[in-house]
Design brief:
4-stranded parallel sheet; 5-stranded parallel sheet; FAD/NAD(P)-binding domain; 23 strands; single chain
Length: 425
């Protein structure tokens, strides 16, 4: 979806919405983007604030989640298992419109859809997700995605399905190359879960194959836990190359299937999964909401854009400071944004938000690890801060029952999240 708007239109407009533009019955909340953050906001608003008139705009009629897509690559699940509709949100009273937002008028507080409908709002929650920075790696453009898929934006599932087919077609003894970006990006542990689950597939079906992971970082989330598991479950199969050891890929040749690092090392691979650097989706950039980092700066108390108050931005598009870009946090942020919007519509002070994160990573079909954190708004820094002692990671060691239990917890987390967001009964 795109909402093109010159930056000056935001800077020159008076955007503060009235404290309560209409009586409590019928205040209009418009949500653009139907992923973890946006669908959560729409669903939660109807459950907790029934006086809100809630409309969700999402161009796709079915949503394929990035969480659990790595299990599709491993062959443990099919795309149907991670595909969700919006019937449950409609049953909760959300008006769900499947169209593309193309023009935003911040003065009139309205959004025009590609089909011609104009939607007015009192508060807008924007959850557009990410865009891939094709300019960050030489040779990697939209055409290259068909040879070297990213599979990092689920969309219609085409990229996930393509990477899965390439893995199936690769001969035993082939090399799978992964290109991993520097921070920040969507789902920090995601590439390493992907390495693990591709290794799980290869170990069962193509055991002579190798995985080469070229990383633009020197450290990563849950690193010790992942590497312990790799040594135990997939010995000799995975080679991880840090940035210091020449792991940062600067150039690709899709025709020759070559990944080239900054010091000129050329790696020929059979399958290439290139995850490029990212930014907020174009809807945010076109609307002038993103700053020079490429992400949207927000007020941590209300999650309103610092450039355009009255527009709350949640999920991967915002700049979260120390918070990771995770599905669980997008869910938490969607709820916090709704609570803030409802309070402001009533002329009340927004509640103090608490942002909870739990991130499970499958390392094998019956083996998972996790990290948990709690964050609060930090008035001093104008950002977010982790609550001391609020979280941690799974313990290290030979703990097979713990890993099996966490795998079951992970499956339960995904099922409960889908019910919470998409309204499974």
């Amino acid at each position: 979806m795109t909402i093109p708007l010159p930056r000056r239109a935001f800077l020159g407009a008076t955007l503060a919405a009235p404290a309560l533009s209409r009586a409590q019955g019928g205040a209009r909340l418009l949500v653009v983007g139907g992923g973890f953050g946006g669908a959560t906001a729409a669903s939660y608003a109807r459950r907790e604030y029934p006086w809100l008139d809630v409309t969700l705009v999402e161009q796709r009629t079915r949503y394929i989640t990035c969480p659990y897509s790595n299990r599709v690559l491993a062959g443990d699940l099919g795309l149907a298992d991670i595909t969700h509709g919006y019937e449950g949100l409609r049953a909760r009273g959300v008006r769900a419109i499947h169209d593309r937002a193309i023009l935003h008028d911040p003065v009139a507080r309205s959004v025009r859809l590609r089909g011609g409908e104009i939607l007015s709002y009192d508060r807008l929650i924007l959850s557009p997700g990410i865009a891939l920075r094709h300019d960050a790696i030489e040779g990697y453009d939209e055409a290259a995605e068909e040879r070297m898929p990213h599979a990092w934006i689920a969309a219609d599932g085409a990229q996930i399905a393509l990477l899965r087919r390439q893995l199936e077609a690769m001969p035993d003894g082939g090399v799978v190359g992964l290109v991993i970006p520097a921070n920040p990006y969507r789902c920090p542990p995601g590439p390493y879960e992907r390495i693990s689950l591709i290794a799980s597939y290869l170990s069962r079906h193509k055991p002579r194959s190798k995985i080469l992971a070229l990383d633009a970082k020197d450290a990563f989330s849950k690193q010790a836990l992942f590497q312990d598991a790799w040594r135990a479950l997939y010995p000799g199969m995975i080679e991880w190359v840090s940035a210091t050891d020449d792991g940062r890929v600067v150039r690709v040749d899709p025709g020759a299937m070559v990944l080239e690092t900054e010091f000129g090392t050329r790696h020929r691979v059979d399958v290439a999964n290139v995850i490029p650097p990212q930014s907020a989706a174009s809807v945010a950039a076109d609307a002038g909401l993103a700053d020079r980092t490429g992400w949207v700066p927000v007020n941590p108390q209300t999650l309103e854009s610092r450039i355009a108050p009255g527009i709350h931005v949640v999920g991967d598009a915002m700049f979260p400071g120390p918070m990771p870009k995770s599905g669980f946090l997008a869910n938490s942020e969607g709820k916090a944004a709704v609570a803030a919007a409802a309070a402001l519509l009533r002329g009340e002070a927004p509640p103090e938000p608490i942002f909870v994160n739990t991130c499970y990573s499958h390392v094998g079909p019956d083996y998972a690890i996790s990290v948990a954190n709690v964050f609060r708004a930090d008035a001093g820094s104008g950002s977010f801060k982790e609550v001391p002692g609020s979280g941690g990671t799974s313990p290290r060691g030979d703990l097979p029952e713990q890993r099996r239990l966490e795998a079951r917890h992970a499956d339960g987390w995904y099922a409960s999240m889908a019910r919470d967001i998409f309204g499974w009964q």
